[in-house]
Amino acid sequence: MKILVLNGPNLNLLGRREPHWYGTRSLAELEGWLRAAFPEHELDWFQSNHEGALIDRLHRAETEGVEGAVLNAGALTHTSYALRDAIAAVSFPVVEVHLSNVYAREPFRHRSVLAPVCAGLIAGLGPWSYYLAVLYLVRSRHERFPDPTARL
After folding, report:
1. CATH 3.40.50.9100 given to domain 2-140
2. Least confidently predicted of 8-17, 52-61, 114-123
3. Other residues' Cβ atoms within 10 Å of the Cβ of residue 85
4. What is the pLDDT of residues 7-36, one digit of tens each?
5. Bridge-based pairing state of the strands 94-98 and 68-72
6. Residues involved in catalysis
C-alpha cells in the first residue's frame, strides 16, 4: 500500500522545538522508525513549511496511486480552509495526527478545521499517533470491522 505522510510547518524542527510537547526524536528519526514498522508498505514522506506546497503534494498524490494519507498539519490545522478543501477533494482517506495532546494546550488548538473532512484524528500519543494512523489505513482497507482477537 502506498501511503503519503505529510508534515506541515515547523515539524522540520522536531527534536529541538519544545521537546516537552513534541519529544526529542527528529523528523528523520520518526520517519525511519515508521518505515521500519511498516516495511511492506511504501511511505512517501513529505514536509513543508508552506501551505501551498502541502496542497500541491496532496493533489499530486491523487495521480500517483496513493491509497491513504497521514497528515500532521501543525498550526495549519486550526486555520487552513484551503488545506481542508484539498483534503475533501482527494479520493483517498486522510488521517489527521498530532504528536501532542492539542486539548491540553492553548484554547486556539482545540479546534481543527480539517477534522470534519478527515477519516479520523489521533492526537497526544507522540510518535504512536503516526503509527496508529498508518495501521488504520492499512487494516481498514481490508476489514470492515477489526477482529478484536487478531494480533496487531
Report:
1. yes
2. 8-17
3. 11
4. 999 999 877 876 666 667 899 999 999 999
5. parallel
6. 22, 98
Tell me the CA end-to-end span of the chain in Å, nearest whole number: 17
Residues 6+ apart with CB under 8 A from 144: none
Q: Are 94 and 27 in contact (CB under 8 A)?
A: no
Q: pLDDT tens digits for 130-145?
A: 999 999 999 988 766 6
How many Å apart are CA 144 and CA 40, to the nearest integer? 21
DSSP state of 70: E
How many other C-beta atoms are found inside a 10 Å radius of the C-beta of residue 71? 25
125 alpha carbon, distance to own chain's centre: 12
Sheet holding 94-98, edge to edge: 42-47, 2-7, 68-72, 94-98, 120-123
* Rounded Cα–Cα distance for residues 133 and 129 (Å): 6
Residue with cell 496508529: 132
C-alpha cell at 147: 477482529
d(CA 1, CA 61): 13
Residue pair 61/70 in contact by the 8 Å Cβ criterion: no
Can you give the pLDDT at residue 45? 96
pTM: 0.88
